[in-house]
Amino acid sequence: MTFGSLAIKRPVAILMLMAFVLLLGLVSLTNLQMDLLPKISPPILGVITSLPNAAPGEVATLITEPLEQVVGTASGLKKISSRSAEGTSIIILEFNWGVNLDAVREEIKDRLEFLQLPDDASKPMVVKFDPTRMPVLQITVTGEKPLRELQRYVEKEVAPKLDSIPGVASVEVTGGPEKEINFIIDEEKLQKYGLNSKVLAGLINLNNFNLPAHKVSKGDKILPVRVMGKFRNLEDLENIVVGMEWGEVLIPIYLKDVVEIEETYGPLDSLSRTNGLDGINITIQREGDSNLVQVTQRVLEMINKMEKAGDYNFTVTLNQGEIVQKSINGIVQNLIIGAFLALIILLVFLKSILSTIVITISIPFSLISTFILMYFTGLTLNLMTLGGLALGVGMLVDNSIVVIENIYRHLQQGEELSEATKKGVDEVAMAITASTFTTMVVFLPVVFVGGLTGELFGELALTVSFSLLASLLVALTVIPMLSFLLLKYQRKIPQFRVWGIYQVLLSYPMTYKGITLFLTVAIFILALSQYPKLGREFIPEIDEGSFIINLTMEEGTNLDITNEEAKKIERILEEYEEIEVISTRVGSRGGITGIPRTDRAEISVLLKERGATKEFISKIRENLTDINGTLTFAQQNEFRDMMGSSELQMIIHGPNLEGVQKLTEDIMKALEKVENLEEIRSNIEGVKPEVQVLLDRNKQALYQLTTASIAQNIKTQLAGERIGYLYEDGKRVAIKLVYNKEKEEGKKVSVEDFDNLKNLQLTTPMGGRVALGEVAEIREAYGPRTIYRENGQVTSIIQGKITKGDLGTIQKEVDKVISDLNLPEGYSTTYGGASQLMEEGFQGLNLAFILALFLVYMIMAAQFESLLNPFIIIFTIPFAGIGVIGGLVLTGKALGITAFIGIIVLTGIVVNNGIVLVDYINKLREQGFKKEEAIIKGGSVRLRPILMTALTTILALIPLALGLGDGAEMQAPMAIVVIGGLLISTFLTLFVLPVIYYYLSTKDKF
């Protein structure tokens, strides 16, 4: 049974199938998760190891380099880079896409088991990079309460409630002081009882455990035995027996007898403010399989209840859920507008409301069918999948247009509705199937292109393919059935009166065939001459209406001074009405490295409106020139946070640190000549001021002091020694041993008292005391803060902010500047970040484009059972490049990954009209028409469906091309490319393809 017969004989069955698909589609839609971007799992592992108190050079030699040798031969490894900082080694392993990361992780763990590291080093921790662990909400809590009370409220009341919300993975509270329990050591008391700080620390540690102790039987049960020694409260801690006093009666010596116990709060190494008010920050992460929008909405509902019930204010400084919702709404809005514009075209051409309604049904029905396939293949609603639907919405009616237009043609010839319906669908079934598969098949290489590009655009490709497949099934079943049921109520079949005009216009290229081809080739060459002038980019940035100002003060600047400069910036920003929220964080607790940075501040700015963030940054930049320190600006968006910014990034490679530092300085100076490149900086943070203690080996031996014992002595007396934790109300409180720093002369021994450091008293193994200055020389010196390496070489990274233009254009200017520098032997430069991603993306898509051409040709050859006919049609693809280049030039858009995807999409679209035209011309020639007569008649008959399918697709993409709504920035270049290419290809199909057909189709009949 043919499709035409099915539509006439089984309309009820088709209606029931429609109802089933509609129901299943709506259920699938309600269960689809929402995200900003597809779920991307970059093949990246990190190896983190600590070596307490070690300088960066020591960390590099003792930890990083041995680790690199062990993990550097892991399966599928693409690049290895490392960062050696004070006390911490971080190695980043980047693998080829498609590698089984879990298996590689276990392989690396097994290798590390046999590696010998210094005794003080921690066990290397192998971690997996997980984008879903990025914050989805950041909230600042403020109120007219002391900061400690505010912190206590957030930790005890707010955080537990938020943590219990379904979908919330973790709740992190920062911004307040950390509670500590200090044991203030009195050396005289310790000596009196024959104790020292090392023994004391050991006793505390050995008693702060819960340990298993095998099992016992009780009746028919086996019960585990546990020794409960972990401290439950401060009283437990105070009453540890640290010794015995001998006499007539043994008297226990308790910890509280030999130390002064103090509950206090550690010094602040970071501050937080929102709109000028001190506050506590809450950072929320979601579970990987949860619905982002739903999770953020639940959290916001909870904090709204708490805000109404208490005296505290909750300010949301980051809401990824809102960003996702607005972006999705923007794309949906563009989709609806595009569909509406496409329907107007249908109404204009068909001149029939009834026929327009019949075709219109194909849009929602195809979309709903797509949701079913999305749900069962695990896709989410995100910018890429919805962008795919917006891209394809105009094409969803193409097949239906061809079917109903052919039914019209048979009705105009006087045939009965049933016969016209049957012939109308059966005649074009093969043609529209072939055209649909040529469009779908171009996405196959994109899905398998691999890398970040494949991960990002694979879901777009699948979504478009799903929707086109659904539209084909609708056109072959639903449209004929509805036409058979409804078109009988149409009184008059509308006539298409442009045929005559087209025949007159077509006569000119058919008369002047050589001139037509010459002009076409000339215009094509002219367009190609503009190709090198096109800008290059990776992916357009999404404007989320927020940005960050990073303040970097001089190395070692204390928190108070950094805070004052941050306040100056805040006061300037408060003058701008466009700003909704100013959130400031001064200093940091060190993150993975654990090294506090008091010379940094981050000011996050949330604007009231989105869409002009870059322009606003340029405006405020001029008013921040008097700020001390270095300022850098960056727009916030999830893609940037995940994969790095669109800034220029250059990596310097060399054999040693000094040479790399010198070359970095020279290149940075040279880059100052490049226009539109500002905020030039490097990750070489200069030298770090430090105090070096140079030991006198003879005196060291005299007092029986080891290097390790001297270092530990100094650290304990200056900063205290963390020896364990006590848990109070579920919160971990550090236990520290600290020395009573007040000396007889009333001075303090601290970091600030450099001149008094020599008086610091060291305890010898025999219990004696000796001043540090007696066994060592103390001096001020400088050393590197961080050492970076990549693939075994020392590296540095230079970054620059592009204020105008595109990445590719700026990169060309940088290449000119660098070529004037004579790089020393053994040193080289490469591009990283967005430049590297762009290069890798273009390489993959170039291959995808070539494969798409072959696949399109093969499908057409199979349909026509001819090698020549597809060759004729495929000429429209390169000539469509005229429209592609013209569209990008006219709109000022750069050629990026999204635009390149548009070119690949065009490969499948532009041949569709050619297929319909050539297929019908061949049918006419089989009926006995002469070649030129068949060309003119075939073009006239297929004129309406060709114009309708092209214009519906073009108009449906206009909202996306204009970048209307939130989140449309990413798809705009793709839409522009498709519109430009389709405009030109439609013209070529109607006027130039007939000429090419005439020359290449040499036989009178087929």
Automatic annotation (TrEMBL):
Organism in which the protein naturally occurs: Anaerobranca gottschalkii DSM 13577
Protein name: Hydrophobic/amphiphilic exporter-1, HAE1 family
GO molecular function: xenobiotic transmembrane transporter activity
InterPro entries: AcrB_DN_DC_subdom, Acrflvin-R
GO cellular component assignments: plasma membrane
Cross-referenced SUPFAM superfamilies: Multidrug efflux transporter AcrB pore domain, PN1, PN2, PC1 and PC2 subdomains, Multidrug efflux transporter AcrB TolC docking domain, DN and DC subdomains, Multidrug efflux transporter AcrB transmembrane domain
Keywords: Membrane, Transmembrane, Transmembrane helix
Gene3D superfamilies in UniProt: Multidrug efflux transporter AcrB pore domain, Multidrug efflux transporter AcrB pore domain like, Multidrug efflux transporter AcrB TolC docking domain, DN and DC subdomains, Multidrug efflux transporter AcrB transmembrane domain
Transmembrane feature ranges: 12-32, 331-350, 357-377, 383-408, 428-448, 460-487, 499-528, 845-864, 871-891, 897-922, 943-962, 974-1000
